[in-house]
Amino acid sequence: MAQSHDMMSRRPPGLRLFGRSGSLRTYQTLVLVLTFFAYACFHMTRKITSIVKSALDPQTKVGFSHWGRLHTSNTLNIGWLPFNTVDGSALLGEIDVAFLAVYSAGMFFAGHIGDRMDLRIFLTIGMLGTAIFTTLFGAGYWMNVHNFYYFLVIQMISGLFQSIGWPSVVAVVGNWFGKSKRGLIMGIWNAHTSIGNIAGSLLAAFLLKFGWGWSFAVPSLIMAFVGLIVYIFLPVNPEAMEIDIDSGEFNCVKDTVKDPLLEPGQEVKHKAVGFLEAWRIPGVAPFALCLFFSKLVAYTFLYWLPFYISHTRIGGEYLSDAMAGSLSTIFDVGGVLGGVLAGHISDRLNARAITAASFMYCAIPALFLYRTYGSMSIVWNICLMFITGMFVNGPYALITTAVSADLGTHSSLNGNSRALATVTAIIDGTGSVGAAIGPLLTGYISSKSWSAVFTMLMAAALLAGLLLTKLVCAELKGKVHSDATKDATDAQGTYSNEV
Fold it and tell me: Where does the Major facilitator superfamily (MFS) profile domain start and stop, copy by copy (predicted)?
C-alpha cells in the first residue's frame, strides 16, 4: 500500500486524473512529444542572441557598403551601447562564451542531480528559470540598460538553468525506449534542436521591428507555458505509471523493474553512478572529446551564422538583419535531415562511431565549399548551407542522443539504471566546453578574417573524426569477425545438407 502511494506521488498531477487509462504506446508518444517541445524551447531561447547581434552591433556592416542597411529599419542603425563600439563583436563573443562556460560546467552538476531527483520537477525548474532570465536580458531594452556586466551576469545565470534541459530530456526518453531503432527514433526526436533554432530565428527576426527586447520576451513566455505543461503531464519513467515495459501491461506489484535498455534478466539497481565511474565507461571519453570539436563547429554556426550572412555580400549585396536571420534557418533544416540520416545509418550498420566519424569528415569539404561559393548567389548559399548543416549537425545529434543513451546503459554498469543523466551530462558537458570556445574565438578572429574562422572549423571537424579512430577500428574489426563467423556458419550448414 505504501509502495502504491509512492507511485501515485510520482505520477504527474495531470495524469492522476486519468488513473490507468493509458497504454505503453500512449505514454511513449506523450514523452516524445513533451520532451521534444521542451528542448525545442531551450534552443529557441538560446538562438535569440545570434539574431539580435546585428541589431546590437550594426556598425561593422555600415562601414562595408551603403547597401548594408537598405532593408533595415532606421531605428536599428545606431545599435545599442556598449555593443555598437569598435570592440562590439568581441563583447558579444564574451557574452556567448560566458553563457556556454556556465552551461558546460552546470551540465556536469545537472546530470549528477538529475539521477537523484524527480526529473519532471528538475526539468520544469530549468525551463522556468531560463524563461525568467531570458526575459530579463530583453528587459534591458525597456529599462535602458547599457552596462555590459548586466547582460553578462544575466546570460551566465541563464546558462546555468539551460544546463538542466539536456540531461533531463535524454534520461526521460531513455527510460521509455529500448535499444531497437534507438538511433532512428532519437534522430527524428533530436529534430527539436533544429526546430527550436528555426522557431527562435524566425520569431526573433520578426519581432526585431518592434524593438530587440521583444525578441527575448515573447519566446520566454512561450517557454514558461510549455514548462508548466511539462510539470503537469510528463511521466518520467514506466515505474511512475506502474507499467511493465516488457509487456506493456500494468503491473502494480513489482519487487524489481526490468529496464528496457538492459539485457534480459538483468535487474535494475537504483544506486546512482559516480562522476568518475561514469567517465571510465568504455567509449565515454572518446565520444565526449569528439563532441567537444563537433559542438565547437555547430555552436559557432548557432551563434554567428546570421551575423556572418548579414556581413557578407551575397549576390553582390548585403541582406538585412531580419533576412539574414531567416536565411540562417536553412542550416537547421539541413540539420534535421542530418540527424535522422545519422541515426538511421548507425542503426542499419550498428556502428555509431563509423557513422559519426564519416559525417565529420564530410563536413570538411562542405565547410570549404560554403565559404568559397556561398556568396555567389542566394541559391548557392541556400544549397551549400543545407549540405553543411546536414553534415555538421548529423554526428552532433547522434552523439548527444543515441550514443549517450547507449553508454548510459553500458554492460559495465551491471544493470545500473541511474547513469543516464550523468553520462549524458559528461558527454554533452564536455562538448559544451568546445561550444563555448568556438564562438569566443570567432568573435576575435572574424574581425580580421572570416576565412580564418572557416579554417578553424575545418580543423575542428578533422580532429572530431580522428578522435573516434580507435572506436572506428574496433567496429570494423567486429564487423569483419561477424562476417567471417557468418560465412563459416553458412558453409557448415551447406556441408551438413550435402552430407
Answer: 31-477
